[in-house]
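Posting this for the archive.
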Amino acid sequence: MSAPTIYILYNADASIMGKLSYGYKKITNKDKDKPTCAACDITHGGLSLDETSQWKAAKAELVESGAVREVKQFHRDELDAETKAFIQSQGLHFPMVLAQDEGSGLRSVMSSEELATFKGDPQVFMQSIRQKLDERKGAS
C-alpha cells in the first residue's frame, strides 16, 4: 500500500474577511480546550499568516520518511465539490484531517476534538498521524 495524501482542513476561510473573522474569534475565545481552529494552531501557531518552522520541519519529515505522499492544507472556502460533499455526508466538523490513498476515496483521520488535544504541537500531531497511518497499514 502506498502512502496516502493527507488533507489538513482549517476552520477558517482564506479571504481577507475570513482571516479577520478568524482573528476575532481566536482573540475572543475563552475556552482553551476548544480552540477556534486547532489545525491553525498546529501549522501556524495561532494568528500568524506564516507556517511555523516546527510545522515545516514536521511536514517535511512526514513526507521524507514516506509516512505520507503529500500534505495538503486548505481553508473551508478552497475545497472542491467532492470534498465538501464527503464532509457533509459524513457529518464532519472543521477543522479536521482527511486522507486519501491512491485510487481510493477520502476518509476521515482526525476530528476537530482530537486535533485540539495536541495543543498546537506539530510533533505530537506528527506522532499521532504516523500511528494512525501505521495502524491502517497493519489492518490491510
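Residues 42 and 122 are 5 Å apart (CA to CA). The mean pLDDT is 89.
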